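User: AAA+ ATPase domain-containing protein. Structure?
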Amino acid sequence: MAGDEDLDKLLENLPFFIQEHINDHPNKEKLIEIVMDLGRRPEARFTTGPEYLSQKIISWQDLDYTTKRISKFSNENRAGIERTLHRISCIRNRQFIINGLTCRIGRAIFGTISSVRDLLESEQSILLLGKPGVGKTTIIREIARVLSDEMEKRVIIIDTSNEIAGDSDIPHSGIGRARRMQVAKTELQHQVMIEAVENHMPQVIIIDEIGTELEALAARTIAEKGVQLVGTTHGNCLENLIKNPPLSDLIGGIQYVTLSDDEAKRRGTQKSILERKAYPAFQIVIEINDSNSWTIHENVKDSIDSLLKGNFTITQIRHLSSNSRTNIKYKNCQTNSLSLIKQLGTIKNPIFCKNDNWISLNKSRSIQSKNLKSKRLVVYLYSLSNNLVREVINKMPLEFIITKELQHASIILGSRVHLSRNNKLRMLAKKNNILIYSIEPNNLLSILKLLV
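Assistant: Predicted structure:
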């Protein structure tokens, strides 16, 4: 990764005693922000932790010195420095006089998205989730540059607070050839989003901090017009969007469904359940855990459905190592459906047979138990598609062999309904000490969940 910080352009607008300390600091390149509050010592916040910069306290003159050298503050109490990515936010007293400043360091860091470049090339809409300060804006700035410069797409950035392309009419070079549309007022962001599609023929629209129901609705409208979206919003995980009514439309929306008695009995659920209303506006969700570790939901539709049912969902974790290599692993996660809503349907867990007793797989062990950690597994399929299972197991690190001879099998994979009716097969499995795993028939996801 390479960074272009323009830090000196920020420092020259700060009081001299702050400039002097920062210039001599050994962790200068790890600086995140500088805080100046009236009557307090100036504080610098690094990735390694906060630190006071001086014994001198901040006076009215120090605040006035800085505010006169930067652009005017907007209605959001934010300002910037010409041709840089730095952001200065102010705190005001009851008389609207500025008594505190937060100077956030803006960075254009090249190479931050190398681990998810394949997702950009898929041309699907991507939503980035993360808590404040984790680097979402830096990431989508680099996404804009890669899409416009390297993939040669028509990219338009909806830059509401001038954080992506800088506080200037001339966009910062960090966004590459992407175009930038500024937003006069925050409440008008959804209108500018629609205007960008109608007037400027973009292939990709990039939006930072989707936060209102109108913006979520505009994002859905844009997605239905066939334009690729890349957006960010606050949240730690996908489940946060389900619990956030204004933003749930981004992942398809959530609605109550009342089932008939027969249907509820067939599903094994309560009569009132939650279901996804529509197709998600974003097909891929990236949870930014930290700068080097991201959790990927490659199929948001399936992930949301699994979360609502309280079922297992498979997530992909990508970690960028110190040598710039990307390590990918899969993780099985399960949500507590009762934490989403009291009346949330549940589904039956996968089960296996041992000593003629059917036991919940979730409460016992997975297929990766110590008895099955051999380099080669011989699988006997019962009422399942051979081609479908082969498609799944070819992606697994273990070596699988599909056999037609039951006595040679290590495990039996089969349909729940058919296995429960075949007593002879169960007796043979017991005799040969073969584990039986039941899954939903011809469902690739349920097979993958079992094997991960």
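The radius of gyration is 27 Å. The longest strand covers residues 312-320.
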